[in-house]
Specification:
The chain has 133 residues and is mainly beta. 9% of the residues lie in helices and 31% in strands. The protein has 2 helices and 9 strands, in the order E-E-E-H-H-E-E-E-E-E-E. Bound molecules: FE2/S2 (inorganic) cluster.
Length: 133
């Protein structure tokens, strides 16, 4: 299947789910107000891979952060999507393979990963259903 549709209605702010698309893990995260503020407080120019949260989310849906769950260093699956997993020093995701820390916009902040977690093409079909791919 080229695309997949996901029901996101049960994902509360502060929670995430893992799904998959083209056999790759995908994280869908409903950011809290604090996580959004945190992401927006960073000066984009200082980032290794300069992108704003708005660049990485859909208009009017800044709280829905959808990324591949594939570390851009050597492809491990970062921690932080499932309940209770460590989120790293910047509160987003943490790759335990070689210690890459991603922030609440899943942007690389520390460690060997060269780029942010990839945002796959996606579109909101309704407020509660997103099509990935
Ligand atoms: Fe994630 Fe190396 S694969 S830090």
């Amino acid at each position: 299947l080229a695309s997949t549709e996901v029901d996101i209605s049960a994902i509360e702010p502060g929670q995430a789910i893992k799904t998959s698309w083209r056999k790759q893990p995908v994280f869908i995260r409903n950011l809290t107000e604090a996580e959004i503020a945190d992401a927006n407080s960073v000066s984009v120019d200082e980032l290794r891979d300069p992108e704003s949260l708005a660049d990485r989310t859909s208009d009017g849906k800044e709280n829905w952060l959808i990324t591949l769950g594939v570390c851009t260093h050597l492809g491990c699956v970062p921690l932080g999507a499932a309940q209770g997993e460590v989120k790293g020093e910047y509160g987003g995701y943490f790759c335990p393979c070689h210690g890459s820390h991603y922030d609440t916009a899943a942007r690389i902040r520390k460690g060997p990963a060269p780029t942010n977690l990839e945002v796959p093409e996606h579109e909101f079909l309704t407020d509660t259903v997103v099509k990935i791919g």
